[in-house]
Amino acid sequence: MITLAEWITYYTEHVKDVDNTYGPGYEQLNELFRNTLKEAWG
Q1: What are the tens digits of pLDDT across the range 2-12?
Q2: How far apart are CA 37 and CA 10, in angstroms?
């Protein structure tokens, strides 16, 4: 059985190799959030 500490170590090492250049456009997400707030609260 794998311990929690082993999982944490595994994923800590794994994320170093992940290519995050195709991540979400934060400005687009911020705009969506602001627009949603405007719709909900006026």
Answers
A1: 999 999 999 99
A2: 38
Phi-psi region of 38 (alpha: psi -120 to 50; beta: other; left: phi over 0): alpha
- Residue corresponding to tokens 């190799």: 17
| Residue whose structure tokens are 């992940």 | 18
Nearest C-alpha neighbor of 6 from the set 36, 27, 14, 40: 14
Q: What is the pTM of this model?
A: 0.43
d(CA 27, CA 16): 24
**Dihedral of alpha carbons 24, 25, 28, 30, sign:** positive
